[in-house]
Amino acid sequence: LTRLCRYRLILSREYRSGLDEMALQVASQRHAEGWTTVRKPSFVTVSIVTYWPTWQGDVDATSKASIDALQLGGIVENDRQCLPVTLNRVTLNRAVDKESPRIEIEVVRG
Prior knowledge:
This protein is of the alpha+beta class. It is 32% helix and 29% strand. The chain is globular and about 35 Å long.
């Protein structure tokens, strides 16, 4: 997935490809709904539910990628807006859906 190289995190091609796909989906929905980018210093509340085909998925990895996709897709100016110091504005959940694995992200301004 990633590796550390001289104090930098290097993303794998597979991770980067998946992240780019997620960002395109986020940007597409943002444009379709007419949403504007949340600019700093505003924060957002984020709820992420990851539906895996089995219980074996890594909710931390998909959550980080989901938050990165919010920035790349233009929902927030900086992904730090999703992670205030208290960390009580991010909710992570996971469930199983063999027929339709997916990630659902809810973003609320303020």
